[in-house]
């Protein structure tokens, strides 16, 4: 009788495990490592630079209390100038404005903010700080950069995704043409988690101690943001969202674990877009194993890139994955800088993390995990639409796309994946 009872308990546990869906699994796995999920959120996708900046600027105009911005860089061009002008106007209205940018992100773009620009912003009442300025001996500043993109307004609404502040999200560049990227706006309790992330690094960088209820949802209703693009899905206001935040020394592997678990949990389909798909062994193995389980996998990477060598490694990787049965799409209409994954039509992520060594092992990164079929379908539809501007990788198209020399460079570059 005792053994029979044990058998029944074990059988029930096994049946329950088999019955678990990928979305319930990922929530359980992420909660085990400290990710907080809330279920009262709306998520509005902003799939172009025009949409992102129109919505962001309107939200800033509506702000009544505080505006917090954390970006890898503010490129010193027309869109940043418009942003800073608007922020200066809000300061005159008594709104607190705090902005943070990464030292490497600033110095490595060809239109950086200079000291004179920062002095002008400070004179207008805008508190703006540089995270980890690049100083001699320089090499000690290579790793652990702040690559996040977070805006929180009045503690009530938040923006996150893959876009910094630059004209090329609207105008493109001569080198790559159109710059394809996306962002999202979150309304709901997940905003509090993004605010915590911002204030944590703000206080650490500035040696201040900014805190208090007024920076979080619940202090006021925030119902005055009425002119923004709405979340029109049937699940608006009820979406489950968790914020995964990678920080060196405290949460090193969290984003890597999310992607690995998401791929391993998949039972039906995976759609993935990422610009710097240099991957590690664990992720490559997970993607290959998913195909063996019968999961339909589609990966989209860009034919164009803003940096050298890394795309060669990406093309080498996707060719190998194609040989294992993954459907690979090469996006031709500019540079696809989007960082998203959709699993089983049930959950997705939008954020700042690339699938390269820097994002997974070194930098400060943040992604929103959205457990919602409606938002996931919106992203999936975007993926299918972008396939019209892509070609499918096959043996023949591979040989047309990559010369023998290109293939050799890709083979060489894949050995450098741990530092790309």
Proportion of residues in helical segments: 40-55%
- How many H/I helices? 15
Radius of gyration: 22 Å
Biggest beta sheet summary: 15 strands, mixed
* Basic shape: globular
Largest sheet strand order: 4-3-2-5-6-8-1-9-16-15-14-10-11-12-17
Report, as a whole number of angstroms, the end-to-end distance.
Answer: 59 Å
Mean pLDDT: 94
Strand content: 15-25%
Count every beta strand, where a strand is a DSSP E run of 2 or more residues. 17
Unreliable stretches covering 5 or more consecutive residues: 1-17
Look at the helices and sheets and give the structural class: alpha/beta
3D architecture notes:
The protein is α/β, with parallel strands linked by helices and 420 residues long. Helices cover 40% and strands 21% of the residues. It contains 15 helices and 17 strands. Strands 4-3-2-5-6-8-1-9-16-15-14-10-11-12-17 form a 15-stranded mixed beta sheet, with helices on both faces. Strands 7-13 form a two-stranded parallel sheet. Strand 5 and strand 6 form a beta hairpin. Helix 11 packs across helix 15. The longest helix is centred in the N-terminal third of the chain and has 18 residues. It starts with a helix and ends in a 6-residue tail after the last helix. The N terminus is likely disordered.
């Amino acid at each position: 009788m005792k053994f029979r009872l044990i058998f029944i308990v074990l059988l029930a546990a096994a049946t329950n495990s088999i019955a678990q869906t990928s979305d319930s699994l990922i929530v359980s796995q992420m909660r085990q490592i400290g990710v907080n999920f809330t279920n009262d959120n709306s998520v509005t996708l902003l799939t172009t630079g025009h949409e992102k900046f129109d919505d962001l600027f309107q939200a800033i105009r509506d702000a009544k209390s505080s505006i917090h911005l954390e970006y890898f860089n503010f490129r010193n061009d027309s869109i940043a100038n418009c942003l800073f002008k608007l922020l200066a106007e809000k300061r005159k209205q008594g709104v607190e404005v705090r902005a943070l940018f990464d030292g490497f992100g600033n110095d490595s773009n060809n239109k950086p903010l200079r000291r004179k620009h920062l002095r002008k912003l400070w004179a207008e009442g805008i508190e703006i700080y540089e995270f980890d300025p690049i100083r001699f001996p320089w090499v000690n500043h290579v790793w652990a950069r702040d690559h996040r993109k977070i805006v929180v307004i009045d503690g009530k609404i938040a923006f996150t995704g893959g876009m910094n502040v630059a004209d090329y999200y609207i105008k493109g560049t001569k080198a790559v043409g159109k710059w394809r990227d996306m962002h999202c706006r979150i309304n709901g309790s997940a905003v509090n988690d993004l605010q915590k992330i911002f204030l944590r690094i703000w206080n650490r960088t500035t040696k201040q101690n900014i805190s208090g209820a007024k920076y979080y949802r619940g202090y006021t209703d925030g119902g005055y943001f009425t002119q923004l693009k709405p979340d029109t899905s049937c699940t608006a206001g009820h979406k489950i969202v968790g914020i995964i935040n990678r920080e060196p020394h405290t949460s090193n592997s969290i984003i890597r674990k999310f992607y690995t678990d998401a791929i391993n949990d998949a039972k039906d389909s995976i759609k993935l877009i990422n610009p710097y798909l240099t991957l590690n062994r664990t992720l490559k193995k997970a993607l290959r194993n998913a195909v063996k389980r019968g999961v339909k996998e589609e990966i989209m990477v860009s034919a164009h890139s803003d940096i050298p060598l890394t795309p060669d490694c990406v093309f080498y990787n996707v060719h190998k994955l194609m040989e294992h049965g993954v459907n690979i799409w090469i996006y031709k209409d500019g540079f696809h800088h989007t960082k998203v994954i959709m699993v089983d039509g049930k959950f997705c992520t939008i954020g700042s993390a690339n699938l390269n060594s820097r994002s997974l092992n070194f930098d400060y990164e943040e992604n929103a995990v959205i457990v919602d079929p409606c938002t996931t379908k919106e992203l999936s539809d975007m993926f299918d639409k972008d396939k019209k501007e892509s070609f499918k990788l096959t043996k023949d198209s591979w040989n047309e796309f990559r010369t023998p020399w290109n293939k050799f460079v890709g083979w060489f570059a894949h050995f450098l994946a741990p530092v790309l």
